[in-house]
Specification:
heterodimer, A: alpha+beta, Gyrase A, domain 2, Cyclophilin, four-stranded antiparallel sheet, 14 strands, 25% helix, 29% strand, B: mainly beta, 4 helices, 20 strands, 32% strand, elongated
Chain lengths: 243, 282
């Protein structure tokens, strides 16, 4: 697949590569393939490549090269044969407790969307979400695929403190707060997992292109998992995705 | 060791930040004013990106228990060594028991203290820069004890002939490049953005500086995309936000301008109420 890419400088040390402004799986796949290709070419000047929905940000160590030269190199890599080493996508099974102790906005979502709480949980767990990228906070996964039935605007006044692990809905997105932080999304549950662990070489278990599915656990199971997570012995379920 | 007698208003250990972890959503962090930090380091013979103490608005009070050398640059904070006034931008010998005190701000906003050999504090993801959710300590507290790396003075004169021009600290002109969504502004809006005087709101921190003036616009939000320190965002309500060293890695507001490195250093030395204007780089 070849898209028409658009190139812009972001200061002297970075070039922004943009795909059509849409949240789409085929755009994501193309973004990630170019990211991997650039990394595999080991261009001397390029020190880091970051992806988001429809763009890559390519960082350069030095400022000597013109935008035109930088574009030419990226363009050449884009049209080159795929040198990407195949990294399988993983489907991560994420336990979530939707108990009222955690789901502070479950009632509000239920009333606003005219859906019972059980159906909210069923819908939220019934979809396989795509990890588009990690941003906003360390370990915050941008997930695509939230059912229209559950889409709900952010709260007009953000909470000053949202708990670590809070599972929430903001507009057409859903996500998990990896750490305590202020936040304006509607909270429907909590996951006992660590979404960001500084002590690990790879601080996040998931990466862009992976899949995520939530499953509902009781408060008791939640506490058991949390104990195992804190002891560092919890084994997170995942399987390879072949698509 | 250095004992923190008073932490000051907001003091942190910072080097030049974390690189290579932005794909996990980790902020760059690092010293706000690289020029001042690099100069302080060079005065004691450290590498310019060695970890330093960044003090904001009101400085710290520190007691040393070792022989070492220090230097500080950036904001002028009425520094005293054992109650005797000392000045910025020089290398000063320290004896055990010495008390270094930074007081009220005279000009600038952030002062950088370098010690010979550098601070020996927690390193996370290849950086000593304090940052909440990343390092255990996110700022200095009273009674903290800071270890320093052993070092000799042999490199002290390595950079001694560097010219250090402090005029950027008080300069109100910030050099900028056009941002990815600059072209979406009308000609009149583009001209206005690059000509009017803005003032800094009290909502300013290591993450970003929001400006007071309302900048009417009809730009549409963008699909969340990458931002970096120095990116200037324009919100639908007309607020301009200049992202700084500890900003998020992605954002959804149009990115209308991008500050130069010098402009980031310069803005780091500004505080609530001060005026700035954006000047397009030639």
């Amino acid at each position: 697949m070849a898209f028409k890419l658009c190139y812009k400088s972001l200061g002297l040390h970075a070039v922004l590569v943009e795909w059509p402004a849409e949240i789409r799986e085929d755009v994501l796949q193309d973004v990630l393939i170019l990211k991997t290709k650039i990394e595999n070419y080991h261009v001397k000047e390029i020190i880091q490549v970051n992806s988001s929905y429809n763009s890559l940000l390519v960082f350069y160590e030095n400022i000597g090269i013109s935008l035109e030269e930088r574009i030419a190199i990226i363009d050449k890599i884009y049209s080159s044969k795929n040198n990407a080493i195949y990294v399988a996508s993983q489907l991560w099974k994420i336990p979530v407790c939707y108990d009222e102790a955690f789901g502070l906005d479950l009632d509000a979502v239920s009333i606003e969307k005219k859906v019972s709480k059980n159906d909210i949980i069923k819908q939220h767990c019934g979809v396989i979400y795509t990890v588009y990228f990690i941003g906003f906070l360390p370990g915050f996964l941008y997930l695509g695929g939230l059912d229209k039935l559950l889409q709900m605007p952010r709260k007009s006044t953000p909470r000053l403190q949202v708990a670590k692990g809070a599972v929430a809905i903001g507009g057409n997105q859903t996500g998990v707060y990896p750490n305590e932080s202020p936040g304006g999304w509607n909270i429907i549950g909590n996951s006992p997992l660590n979404f960001f662990d500084v002590s690990k070489e790879k601080p996040c278990f998931a990466k862009a292109g992976d899949r995520v599915q939530f499953y509902s656990v009781s408060l008791k199971t939640y506490n058991n998992i949390k104990t195992l997570v804190e002891a560092g012995v919890y084994e997170l379920e995942s399987e390879e995705v072949n698509d | 060791m250095i004992k923190v007698l008073k932490a000051g208003f907001y003091s942190t250990i910072q080097d030049f930040g974390r690189y290579g972890y932005q794909e996990f959503g980790v902020p760059f962090s690092g010293v706000m004013d690289r020029k001042a930090a690099a100069f302080a380091n060079s005065l004691v013979g450290n590498y310019e990106d060695e970890a330093v103490l960044e003090m904001t608005m009101l400085g710290a009070s520190l007691q040393f228990s070792v022989n070492t050398h220090i230097a500080f640059s950036g904001a002028q904070m009425d520094a005293k060594l054992n109650d005797v006034e000392i000045t910025n931008n020089g290398s000063i010998a320290i004896k055990p028991g010495d008390i270094l005190n930074f007081g009220k701000l005279k000009w600038g906003f952030r002062c950088y203290l370098a010690v010979l050999g550098g601070f020996k504090t927690e390193t996370v993801m290849k950086s000593k820069s304090m940052c909440s959710n990343i390092t255990k300590a996110s700022r200095l507290l009273k009674n903290d004890e800071l270890a320093i790396n052993a070092s000799s003075l042999e490199n002290q004169n390595r950079y001694s002939r560097i010219r250090y021009d402090e005029s950027y600290i008080n300069s109100s002109n910030l050099e900028v490049y056009v941002g990815p969504e600059f072209e979406n502004l009308t000609d009149a809006q583009q001209k206005k953005l690059l000509s009017i005087r803005f003032t800094i709101s009290n909502n300013n921190s290591r993450m970003g500086y929001q400006l007071n003036e309302n900048f009417q616009n009809n730009l549409e939000a963008i699909i969340t995309g990458p931002v970096i320190p120095g990116t200037v965002q324009l919100t639908p309500s007309g607020k301009l936000i200049v992202l700084m060293r500890e900003c998020q890695t992605t954002g959804g507001y149009p990115r209308v301008l991008q500050l130069s490195e010098t402009a980031i250093n310069s803005l780091s030395q500004k505080y609530t109420g001060q005026a700035i204007s954006f000047k397009l780089s030639k």
